[in-house]
């Protein structure tokens, strides 16, 4: 034991004990100082010592921080309540942290139970949840007393009842004179004063709130339990609720009712007392050991081996596998680290002997050398690690494609030590390249490493050199990855069938050949080497001298001219064939280009804007989620933190005081503007920090929008003074300062109502129209490029021919095979299975107005053919594979015709045959896939000549124009709703801010009207509307695909060009996104100028009107943000740059009271932090 942490939990004391071998043990002690069996909460890999100081998590008090030497920290739960699945197991754990929660029907922590309907253990340790005794008084009246050993919540305590049900009697069992149940006891006065000889089975049903506990009792006439006083009879007496006295069984009040009295009684049978002399092995890992051997005397009657931990806890028994009378075999079960007592059990359940078994850490593997072997096996590998003496076997699991991995086990030698273990590899089945090595310990497989199997080493030839009586031999071997050493080879020279050993000396490498050098010493005179025998593993290779080398060289020289002539003939024939193929390809190319141009012309002239405008309910996001996505587009943590959800916990009082003081401080305009300027002057304060600061201020001051507006105006005036000296046209062009992000947030708040009421519907219809138009043509599932798009970058110009299909879709209803009425769905022959599912669910929602009840990822579809249904999957065994790339299955692949019947099922009721039904299921990107765009691999042209047809991107540019025609009316409606003026008035915020810009231009003596136009454009259309237009997911509950993002960028570019003052000259090399709306931009520009003029001529918004508007906006959404969280995040900036802020306040002449208020806020936050650390230290010593 190296450390102890004591925690009081209710009436119990809980000790968390750290040990020197890396275990965290929990020991529970009740109010009477009785201990419960210790439990291991954590066990480290290896023998890392627990540091002497442990801490309880002060946030939830449900975790212990366990430091392990030298530099490891673990956060371990104080209890494993969730592992207990019923009320009996939850109670039997005797864990004061756990309660059985009836409403959740699970074992959990008490504060995790939503109500007081829970059941827990009592204040003292007990062995049974329900105990009973039977009493017989002087009038022969029999009374059954039930005692529950529980602690209840208030709701469970109010519903405490007991019900007694005998199994063999239909008459009333308990007398009406029985007292009512009163927790924790129930009493039943039996109506019959006599009991049957065989006893009476009674079921007791105890109700504790919504928790029901059933217990079966067997009530017997105590006087009928008679016989010789043996331990068996004693236990039978105690279990019947009777008492045991010296002479035999009696009623409870006349004897003991504790089974400890039975331990002193003999069993009544005569067995020779067994003795244990040794156990091999006596030291094992905590996984146990199979086929251990116990030796001793008088072992013939032993039936089991019993293992006893400290404090008589956690009895484990193992059956005897074989028994010779002097020794027996058995399996040592797994346990925790430590020492356990072992005894042998006789048939009368008595246990004899007192041997010890020590449990230590499990083996671990760090490396295997060498890391490869030859396919025939028998190469010696050395495993390095720790505690390897506990390894019972080495297991090789071979990896093989499309076949269940074969497993081979090798027994290690007996002389393995603690750190190294050497064994011989098994032979690998044919086709195996890698094998995973695991260590077998008892019934566990511990992963070790992976080794490679390579082909057998290839020995080519050898040469010999005579030096005196010695012969020096050089063996040539083809280079490979086996890295064979000289120690692994045994070589003999052979002359006249007599072998002479060759002593290995060295190994050399040169290019693609390995050279092994050995020497045969003291050879006889006239020694002539005839052959060489080489042995590695269990393989033997024989090499002979090369005598026909000269003849072979002459033969090669004669064949060279014939080979040259043959090559020339083959080359000329190939050239002629390639010329014919090239001419044919050119003709096909011309025909394809003609067809593509004609089809593009037809699409352009026949395209109709027939997209549906009725899209059902528009899925607007509520205000707080809309605003948070605008405020924190790149920080999901701040977004989540600043939204106040329903039921959110109340912040602590100390934090409230700190936040209130900080809130009052930032409501001082001098402080707030000084703080912003001080932070922006720091080089380490990035643009990301400026945006976060602006958004946090917006959340913290959301209930005081008028004050926030004043601060924004002050900061804008300061920014204009900076910009006036340089280029005023660049003002508000980008978001590079805090006030620019603050302006974005302010516009979002003020224009939310206008967005919902006037623009939202047109924006959603435009997005829906683009989506529907895209779905009319092929969309590549992998790259997301589409044939019908507005962006040239996302144009699927490589698309092959396709046809439109009308599918009859049936939906499974219930589990009896019933189906719905058919639903007609439009699809394309080139659609993948996943795209077909999306179109089916989209059509379902469009027709019925609500989504299908099963998510897309849990839906599978089947195609009816010849009276049976075939499951459609994106990837299955029939998928076409080109090189390493797999083509996704389409309707054309499955040969689905027009008018085919498709059935929609749930994966839960009909699991797929393939483990991967979609490319999206491949989360690890382990495979390569393609859909409509061919992979860049070499393929067989004879099989698929049409796949490599040359496609020209410029031929398909007309698809951009046809898509623009289809959605143009929706785009125009959206633009005009933005610069439209409902009731002849612009929104209050627009008029107010434009007037503010006009006044600032007058103050700064700016007479250029273009500057004012640019300011207004940068502040409203480009800052707010373009952001909304390119990110509709900020407004609606929807997903934005990459292709949709490209289309929206083109539309947003046209919107921005409509506000531009410069005239752009476009030529044939201009980008298509500029050319697409080139004719519409002049008309849009005129409408924008008219809009600016109408706003300028509109009557001013009075201060009181605008103040009422802001107050109404604040009040409408006053409880939707977590201002306290925003203030805490703001203080982090103040804390980081405290000195700089204080210096800026001094420069601006801040009053003393303001400086004191700043220091007071700092003291409050510092005191809160110090208080938290003191509380943590205090509780650790509790």
From TrEMBL:
Signal peptide: none annotated. One of its GO terms (biological process) is positive regulation of axonogenesis. It comes from the Eukaryota. Its main location: membrane. The chain crosses the membrane at residues 549-571. Keywords: Cell membrane, Disulfide bond, Glycoprotein, Membrane, Receptor, Transmembrane, Transmembrane helix. One of its GO terms (molecular function) is semaphorin receptor activity. Coiled coil: none annotated. It is found in: Cell membrane. CDD domains: IPT (cd00102). It is a single-pass membrane protein. Residues 1-78 form the Sema domain. SMART domains: PSI. It holds the Pfam family Plexin_cytopl. One of its GO terms (cellular component) is plasma membrane. This is Plexin-C1 Virus-encoded semaphorin protein receptor. It comes from Larimichthys crocea (Large yellow croaker).
